[in-house]
Write a structure and sequence with these properties.
- The structure is a single chain.
- The protein is mainly beta.
- It contains seven helices and 23 strands.
- The protein is globular and about 65 Å long.
């Protein structure tokens, strides 16, 4: 009766149903190294049939190996986990029970005061910040819950109005490389996804936002993703370094819109040069993507004096009402598009093999 002593009857029955035969070892040992359940009431890290169990994701990450060479899988049960998380150990995998019901959330914006008394800033606002190699997330929602719309309603001069509305859900920085995201949701408004380092691969994901909600200097592939604009704005704001051949590749995906988004009100992207950095040559490429009517005829826009004409902004095979022929929207030739396969963008790394 070890389970009854450690968990309580309700949780035991839940695990029994989930694992099929009532044995945690048979269902999870060798598959997950840790389980997180917000309803767990035992001691953090207690071994139950060879699997550690925790109340919070942060504690499970804290007690993960410092220098693993194979995936350390943390299985997260359904629930809303209000935590600000940082990954600084290689080979961490976060695997949710259900993409729509397993939610990692925090509500820091750039203008929010951190515990240090200083503002988080855009880079520090992330709900989940990844700084190590070989990270993976599956079947999970990562959300920045800052209430952008409610904040926008507040009058100028209202002391509760947050002036820094950039609010990152997920940031890849530092040593991040070979990061894989499958069947995840990324939710926010301004600056939802900050891919600023290494290579990353997003497959069958849902990414929502408003302004520059996919941005940064990293090399990232989005394959079979739904990219949803919640208001008029900009989808991407890459800051690709000039000596990097590849930036953001969005392929076989759909650009969709929320119910309040007007036609012709969203740009495919604009070039972000942090601090006016002239060493940037922004790149976003869309290949074989469906585009709804919110996508602008103009396609691309300028940012801080840097124009799309001197950036690497291209399309190929766009379809849908937003795929509008325009002299402002450069198209790749059938020859040039061969340079933009997933394999070429990711180089010697195949995310399907890890």
């Amino acid at each position: 009766m070890k389970w009854l002593c450690s968990y309580g009857l309700v949780f035991c029955l839940t695990l029994a149903v989930f694992l099929g035969n009532g044995s945690l070892a048979d269902g999870a040992a060798g598959t997950y190294q840790a389980i997180v359940d917000q309803n767990y009431s035992g001691a953090d890290g207690e071994l139950i049939d060879q699997v550690k169990v925790y109340k919070t994701v942060g504690k499970a990450i804290e007690e993960a190996p410092v220098a693993a060479e194979t995936p350390y899988v943390i299985y997260i049960k359904n629930g809303r986990y209000y935590e600000k998380l940082r990954i600084e150990k290689p080979f961490i995998t976060l695997k949710g029970e259900d993409r729509n019901k397993t939610v990692l959330t925090f509500d820091a914006a750039a203008g929010t005061l951190a515990p240090s008394g200083k503002k988080y800033g855009t880079s520090g606002s992330g709900t989940l910040i990844v700084r190590a190699t070989n990270f993976r997330a599956e079947n999970i929602t990562i959300e920045n819950g800052f209430d952008y719309l409610e904040n926008a309603k507040k009058a100028q001069g209202d002391p509760t109005k947050n002036p820094g509305t950039q609010a990152v859900a997920l940031k890849l920085e530092g040593l991040s490389d070979k990061a894989v995201f499958r069947n995840i949701k990324l939710l926010g408004f301004q600056d939802t996804l900050y891919v600023d380092a290494g290579r990353s691969y997003f497959s069958d994901c849902y990414i929502a936002g408003h302004v520059d909600f996919i941005f940064g200097a990293g090399r990232a592939v989005f394959n079979h993703c739904d990219i949803v604009s919640l208001l008029g704005g900009y989808v991407t704001a890459p800051s690709t370094k000039a000596d990097n051949k590849y930036g953001l590749l969005i392929i076989n995906s759909r650009l969709l819109k929320g119910p309040q988004v007007a036609d012709d009100s969203v740009y495919l992207g604009r070039p972000w040069h942090p601090g006016g950095n002239p060493e940037v040559n922004s790149e976003t490429v869309y290949i074989n993507c469906y585009m709804d009517s919110h996508i602008s005829y103009k396609g691309w826009d300028s940012m801080s004096g840097f124009t799309p004409e001197v950036s690497r902004f291209y399309e190929y095979g766009s379809t849908g009402p937003g795929a509008k022929a325009s002299p402002k929207r450069p198209l790749l030739t059938s020859e040039a598009v061969r340079e933009y396969s997933i394999e070429q963008v990711l180089g010697d790394w195949n995310p399907g093999q890890e």
